[in-house]
Amino acid sequence: MSGVVTIAGTEPFLDRVAQEWLERDPAAGTDGPGLILVPSRRAGRALMEAFLRVLDTQAALLPRIVAINDVDEDALASIGIDVVLPPAVEPQRRLAVLSMLILQTPLVSVGVDSTKGIDRAWPLAKALADLMDEAERSGVDLAERLPDAVEERFSDHWQQTLKFLEIVTAVWPKWLEEEGLSNPVARQIARLKAQAQAWAEKPPLTPVWGVGFADGSAAVSDVLAVVARLPAGLVILPGVDLGMADEIWADLPPSHPQAGLKEILTDLGLSREELTDWDGGRDRGRELMLREVLLPEQGIAHWGQDSRPRDIAGLSILPAQDQQQEAQAIALILRDAVSETGKTCALVTPDRALAQRVGTELLRFGIHADDSAGESLSQTPAAVFLRLIATAAEAQLSPVALLSVLKHPLAALGRTPGDCHASARRLERLLLRGPAPAPGIAGLKAALREYTDKKHAPDNGASADAPDEPEGPAAFIARIERAFDPLLSIEGAIPLPELLERLIHTAEALAATAEELDAPEDEPRHPGARLWLGEDGEALSRHLAALIVNTGILPPQRLTHLDSFLNTSMAGQMLTGLRAHRGGVELAHPRVSILGVLEARLLAFDVVVLGGLNEGVWPPATDPGPWLSRPMRVRVGLPSPERQTGVSAHDFVSTILASKEAVFASSARREGAPGVPARWMVRMDAFLGGRSQSLPVHQALDWQRCLDQPLAGAEAVAPPEPRPPVALRPRGLSITEIETWMHDPYAIYAKHVLKLRALKPLEEGAEHADFGMIVHDAMERVLRDFPERWPANASAILRRVFAEELAKANMRPALVNWWGPRLARIADWVAEKEAAYRLDMEESGPAQGRFVEVTASFRLQAAFAPFELRGRADRIDIGADGLATVFDYKTGQPPSGKNVAEGWSVQLVLEGALLAKGAFKDVPAVETKKLLYWHLTGGDDPGKESEVPGSRSGTDAPTLIGEAMEKLRTLVDEYDMPDQPYRSQPWAGHVPRYTDYAQLARVDEWRAAYAEGEGE
């Protein structure tokens, strides 16, 4: 009998191993407890838990359990390997040296700027390190095999790549030799081979088992081969398919679930007939079905030989519409499973985003699930804080970047975090809303001076900061200046270690609390030390220390490279167990697990959800890597990319077989694009469809649809109808606000009764309103300069004035280049139009007056109390006949004549009414004969004049003006009635184009409810 056995996939693998060890007691009569080799530390922990379950509180001397696939010096040393080898190069040092070599190669340096940005070279260094590690695991000598990798028929690109790869075939090995170091994986492989040889020459007296290997490196196969031949050795493989036809087994493609196991048996020199099957007598119906479903292409003909229905009990699908629905439904399945005493459940997925979503959704049920794959170091709070600081410094303290730092939970700036955040909110309200200040600290100080000089309205948001006490903006800006000085004082490129040290000094200054700064002198003070607390803080501290030590050999770097370098340097580094404990208390639920596919190997659960079953996720997309094409990999001797698909397929099958109930989850859309179901699920659908079967849809999708719905059904939101006391209602409005009052009364209520004002956006860009202000200001200047005679060179004057106003606006260059030609076309149109207009006026005699940008105020006597109407006219011309023409300039779309005639657009009409009352300052009371809009766009049709109301409207300007004040009085009297509500957008055909209060009024909600009601 060979020393190799297999356990069927339907058996709880680790529990069976523990049971067999305890029953056989192979260490009895030997000098030690025995040794069990496992593929990973996670598998080792799981095996230890399996021993505890089998023992069930009984005492026993357990074997040593050692993981040999992980690059772990301590683990390898624990199995007795004692061989003199060069020490392994530190990971950060390896990447730093490789990055330096990459930057020195002509192929890369051509595309890198003069500072040779490390943020581009570091990922390439990681890819080179991965290539070396893969080659060493596969037993491939790159220096020997790479020169023959490129055939003459290949393109020159691959020849250049081969030249570039001399870094790993010649330069890097020479550097290792000079430094007396070795690659970590090469050292691991050498130690394993040495251990295999030592055991072969002198077998250990204690038992040695190799458990759970489904794929591995050449060195691992050497160790397993020796273990299988030891007197007390045993290799236990998971789920070798002993029933597959020999002709199919002989030609398995690398993408098949059994391909890795076949490779191990080949390395061991064994056939399946030589294996011992530890059959536990469980039903293998599910195993047989999956064998048929996943037959390679040459075996698909077997599908038609037996069309009887297959056993699909315990299997179901979860076809979600998107990733969020998938995550919520999975969380509900796990929640349902743990509601039964003793039932275990898990989500197994390679999709880290899905795992995080499910973990978040479980929190609504009070379930903390420890994600075994861990949390990315770059996403830990302290790492995010450092990256935000680097971004803010690079952006010269732009409002969004600065506030991202100041509002971070770690920010304190020498005060309490609460006071710091309150001070940041105050700074935001006073200085950072609206157009961004000029860059840097100088910009913040200039914005503060401007705010102080203009005597803005008081800060009405201070009450929101209680009970924290915000600091004055001047003092707070001074704190910001001191904290950011190490980074903002950088000029040009500096050594990378110095750049990182300056970042750390800035971060510690920003994170320092008043308590740390005010500590007694006899106590050690470390301001900002809370950045490095906890496992994540310690890991980040070690990472940065290693970078500072090892990156001095790299070229100097600019501040602009810092954030991207931090991100790339931390990529792939994961921390486990961070959120599973708090204050020494374990939070993770003992019966709920979220696992990656590697972590889930060899584990068994009552309910398992296989999440992310979409092509490109599970299985992952096949990628030959950045350095070698598929044919080149074959010639070199590296595994094909499809081998990873085979590993994923084995994990897929093993997870299904090891569970009592399996749910296959996928989403129809991923990140906004259509999702393609995993190939295994497509095969399963086709296989079962030929037997008139299909997997049932799990009812969790129905649960999910009801999850956020009220039990009694949803009630449509009614539009708001506030009725404030009449005394609180506004007693005066501008003409523009009168139109708002007519179209959206709720906006008037929110603004004048509730006193709410919309905050300006951060880093507010130039809007169309800015274009309109430039046009109005330029028109005002020219008309004031030339009230009577229109100059012959008016076009040139207007162009100059428009250009000057555009320059005053301080727009970004792109807008200047866009708006400049438009303004020039407007200037030409106005010059020509104004000349013709004045010529027509002079035929009737000299004008009595021309008034530009004049204001008006009029007290209207209403029933409850007087009402003040305020207005401002762009231009009023009084002709020789004593009648006025009122102008309004529009850069947007002007109101139609119909809307003016029907009373929906009353701006010019009310201006005419105010003019008739003599309400305009320094303008005589006259009647109006014309109301004109000048539509000034600067487009293909740069300007257009329109008179309102139109000739077809059946009315004229004097008539509308004569009725205007009485209609306004009627409107005021209506809203002076206590029962009159301020409705939100009550007229369907007259919805305002812009409003600040639609969200407050929940317009989208009640309008959607109305639309659904009409549809029913």
Structural commentary:
The strands form six sheets. This protein has a six-stranded parallel β-sheet with strand order 3-2-4-5-1-6, sandwiched between helices. Strands 18, 19, 20, 21, 22 and 23 form a six-stranded mixed β-sheet that branches. Helix 15 crosses helix 16 and helix 32 (768-785) packs across helix 33. The protein has 1016 residues and is of the alpha/beta class. The mean pLDDT is 90. The protein is 46% helix and 11% strand.
- The helical percent reads 40-55%
Mean pLDDT: 90
**Main sheet record:** 6 strands, parallel
List the strand order in the largest sheet.
Answer: 3-2-4-5-1-6
Radius of gyration, CA atoms, in whole angstroms: 39 Å
| Structural class by sheet pairing and helices | alpha/beta
Mind sketching the topology for me?
Elements: E1 4-7, H1 13-24, E2 35-38, H2 41-55, E3 64-67, H3 73-77, H4 91-104, H5 106-109, H6 118-137, H7 142-145, H8 156-164, H9 166-179, H10 184-201, E4 208-211, H11 218-229, E5 233-238, H12 246-249, H13 259-268, E6 276-277, H14 285-293, E7 315-320, H15 323-338, E8 345-348, H16 352-363, E9 375-376, H17 381-394, H18 399-406, H19 417-432, H20 440-454, H21 473-488, H22 496-511, H23 514-517, H24 534-550, H25 562-570, E10 574-575, E11 581-582, E12 585-586, E13 592-595, E14 605-610, H26 630-636, H27 642-657, E15 659-667, E16 669-670, E17 673-674, H28 679-689, H29 700-707, E18 732-734, H30 735-743, H31 745-753, H32 768-785, H33 794-808, H34 813-843, E19 849-860, E20 867-878, E21 884-890, H35 897-901, H36 907-916, E22 928-936, E23 943-948, H37 957-975, H38 1003-1015
Parallel strand pairs: 1-5, 1-6, 2-3, 2-4, 4-5, 7-15, 8-13, 8-14, 14-15, 18-20, 21-22
Antiparallel strand pairs: 9-10, 11-12, 16-17, 19-20, 20-21, 22-23
